Amino acid sequence: MDKKARVQKVIDLLKSNYPEARIALEFKTPFQLLIATILAAQCTDERVNQVTKTLFRKYKTPVDFISVGREELEKEIFSTGFYRQKAKSIQECCKAIIEKYDGKLPKEFDELTKLPGVGRKTASVIVGNAYGEPAIAVDTHVKRISNILGFVEEENADKIELLLKDIVPTEDWTIYSHLIASDGRNICIARRPKCQECFISKFCPYPEKPNG
Hints:
By secondary structure, this protein is mainly α.
């Protein structure tokens, strides 16, 4: 079985076992998803959702986020970790949205990556989940499990994204990230993989390999 055929088999099985797979971050607008994704770096989605529940009631626009003092914003997002850098990134990003895009978050992938603190992963999350355009967001789950499955042999996230786009059907680009993340949380857990329970093990080159 060639790699593309194996990828399709894995995706089909993941869809069957995780029919509700979707982005875990809660948002109502593309701009909210941008802020949530910035906060999600090195933080659980659950924690981010707890923080944004209050944050998005107070701050609704880029202007709101740059109008608040940096220290106050740091306090608001403290529990997400790396709060100083995240507060700086959020405010610099919001400033750029106001100055370069009239306060409206751009829809184009390349334009999104021009914003301060927005890399390919964040841009992929936004265009894939807020704008409905096919995109593969390479998070820690996608990087680790795609390597374990032998879909890629690469550690650089940007290169992994491009390699996966060659073998994952375009219509499955966005859901692929969510399916892999679901499996990473439930079966292919980094420190304690449940290989004996894995329903895609026959398509995995190393079903008994510790997933570290």
